[in-house]
Amino acid sequence: MRKLFLVSVILMALLPAAAFARGRGVVVVGPGFAPYGWYGPYYGPYSYGPYPLANAGQVKLDTQVKDAEVFIEGSYAGKVRELKTMMMRPGSYDISVRAPGRETFEQKVYVVAGKTLKLRPELRVQSTPATVR
User: Residue 104 is part of a domain; what is its CATH number?
Assistant: First the structure.
């Protein structure tokens, strides 16, 4: 009886590994609150990060301003240096890149599964208006 119990416990422990071996490759992503806020580079409701996800597309940011802040759907996602490549679920997103003293880059993008979208925000330095005397 004890052997039967031990064998059943071992089989129950191996069940999740057997489901993963079938090739499903499902990643469950939930909210994360680590030092990066809600969206961090490896987790969050939009599930982007360096890990390949089933049915996901990539968004790559290419800009010289590495300290610029990235916002997705109006919520802070992180800095450009942390989010060079984002894995995102297919769909439509409003992405904005902001840096102090520079023009804001805003664009509505559509992420397609298996495709890479490259964004090149220029973030030009804002010209200050001349003071009137």
Answer: 2.60.40.1120
CA distance linking residue 75 with residue 84, whole number of Å: 17
Total of domains in the chain: 1
Q: How far apart are CA 56 and CA 127, in angstroms?
A: 39
What pTM does this model have?
Answer: 0.56
The winner for highest mean pLDDT among 5-14, 16-25, 103-112 is 103-112
The domain of 85 spans 27-125
CA 41/CA 77 separation, integer angstroms? 8
User: What stretches of the chain adopt beta strand conformation (E)?
Assistant: 57-61, 69-72, 75-79, 85-88, 91-98, 105-111, 116-119
Query: Is 79 domain-assigned?
Result: yes
Rounded-to-integer distance, Cα 25 and Cα 30, Å = 16
